[in-house]
Write a structure and sequence with these properties.
Oligomer: single chain
Order of helices and strands: HHHHH
Largest sheet: none
Low-confidence stretches: none
Shape: globular
Helix content: over 70%
Number of helices: 5
Number of domains: 1
Mean pLDDT: 94
Strand content: under 5%
């Protein structure tokens, strides 16, 4: 089971480091998407920052499982927000599929490491 966790953790960390950096850098695709979704551009920057924080938590999670659980939970919440955004603007399932997959991976990873969340700093 640990190998599965490490693989999922690595995939999510890599995806969200890239996604977070490109959102914060103002890559045209993200700027256009946030405009199409009728969301303010400052929210794109905040979203990118949250994604980078969650990816950093996943990276710290290689040494402390509680950080993996926290990062996965944060990414699951970001994924749910992304899904709701796509539903709100009536995007097709094809456009929504990537965030559905990412949210599902984050939820699975969270449930695999959920018991470690009790050891998260400040929860003791």
């Amino acid at each position: 089971m640990d190998i599965l966790v490490i693989v999922l953790q690595s995939l999510l960390a890599l995806m969200f480091v890239m996604a977070g950096l490109s959102k914060m850098a103002g890559v045209k695709m993200h700027v256009d998407n946030f405009t199409r979704w009728r969301l303010p551009q400052w929210f794109r920057v905040v979203t990118g920052f949250v994604q980078l924080v969650a990816a950093a938590a996943l990276i710290v999670g290689y040494w402390d499982d509680s950080w993996t659980a926290a990062g996965a939970l944060l990414l699951a919440l970001v994924g749910i927000g992304g899904i709701l955004t796509h539903v709100r603007v009536r995007d097709s399932l094809k456009e929504m599929f990537p965030i559905l997959l990412i949210a599902a991976i984050a939820i699975v990873l969270f449930f695999l490491r959920m018991s470690a969340l009790a050891d998260f700093p400040g929860f003791q």
